[in-house]
Amino acid sequence: MAIPIKTAAEIETMRVAGRLASEVLDYIGDHVRAGITTSEIDRLCHDYMTGVQGTIPAPLNYAPPGYRPYPKSVCTSVNHVVCHGVPGEKKLKPGDIVNVDVTVIHQGYHGDSSRMYYVGEPTIQARRLCELTYECMWRGIRTVREGAQLGDIGHAIQSHAERNGFSVVREFCGHGIGKRFHEDPQVVHYGKPRTGLRLEAGMIFTIEPMINAGRADIRALADGWTIVTKDHSLSAQWEHTILVTPTGFEVLTVSAGTPPPPEPPR
Ligand code: MF3
Ligand code: CO
Ligand code: CO
């Protein structure tokens, strides 16, 4: 299970792929409003990727072993949907929280990022969950450097989520990414410090914690893709694609509209 180390040329292409994925998220933000359907969001993103950017939406017809081909170009996960929400005809309504997850292919390389959006005013709990999940992602990112270990990332995320009364989804994880959408290593969002794979400069992977307001348990819907919380509690997720560097990390999924990192903890 050798972990790919990217060349300088591959890293440069992945920077562009990452920026392009993030620019789709910038573009769609203004459209995530009450009354729009998630299918319309999917169509807008699809047309922006293929028509404006000249990128390929990686999810469309993506079929990992054991899955039927994914039918849409992005994932839209609303409220108690944890991840892989398949866009459909339901209209968004005020108070909904929505994750849009975009993966583009640019010159054969993938960029993968997701953000949470509010439809109108979120409840206090929903806002807290989205903000806390964003902090969790960033606590994970901030542990990354050559010589750190995957368990350091997972521990930073899990400890912050659980001390705030939330739970971490176990069944889905971050992943290596490059020429392939999902490659080694698996980056789980829980764990113990100083355990697991040692990070090396030139590795590229995503960090994409899914955090639930209630219990961690999930189940899949009959469409074979959409994952929901078993207890129907709210779930949030954020995702960046990260390069390991000798002294730290570089976030590759950055664009003009990327939300700023949270204040570092003190
Ligand atoms: N973008 C998701 C991830 O972060 C994967 C979605 S798979 C799909 O790994 F087929 F549903 F798009
Ligand atoms: Co991903
Ligand atoms: Co993604």
Explain this structure.
The protein has 266 residues and is an alpha+beta fold. It has one domain (8-250): Creatinase/methionine aminopeptidase superfamily (Creatine Amidinohydrolase). Helices cover 26% and strands 24% of the residues. It contains four helices and 15 strands. The protein has helices spanning 8-29, 38-53, 124-141, 150-163; strands spanning 56-57, 75-78, 81-83, 97-106, 109-118, 167-168, 174-176, 183-187, 204-207, 210-212, 218-220, 227-229, 235-237, 240-244, 249-251. Strands 1, 2, 4 and 5 form a four-stranded antiparallel β-sheet that branches. Strands 3-12-11 form a three-stranded antiparallel β-sheet, with no helix packed on it. Strand 14 and strand 15 form a beta hairpin. Helix 3 (124-141) runs antiparallel to helix 4. It is globular and about 45 Å long. The model has no long low-confidence stretch (mean pLDDT 98). 2-amino-4-trifluoromethylsulfanyl-butyric acid (MF3) binds at residues 59, 62, 70, 75, 84, 101, 103, 112, 206, 208, 225, 239. 2-amino-4-trifluoromethylsulfanyl-butyric acid (MF3) is lined by residues 59, 62, 70, 75, 84, 101, 103, 112, 206, 208, 225, 239.
Helix and strand arrangement:
Blueprint: H1 8-29, H2 38-53, E1 56-57, E2 75-78, E3 81-83, E4 97-106, E5 109-118, H3 124-141, H4 150-163, E6 167-168, E7 174-176, E8 183-187, E9 204-207, E10 210-212, E11 218-220, E12 227-229, E13 235-237, E14 240-244, E15 249-251
Antiparallel strand pairs: 1-4, 2-4, 3-12, 4-5, 6-10, 7-8, 9-14, 10-13, 11-12, 14-15
This protein binds 2-amino-4-trifluoromethylsulfanyl-butyric acid and cobalt (II) ion (2 copies).
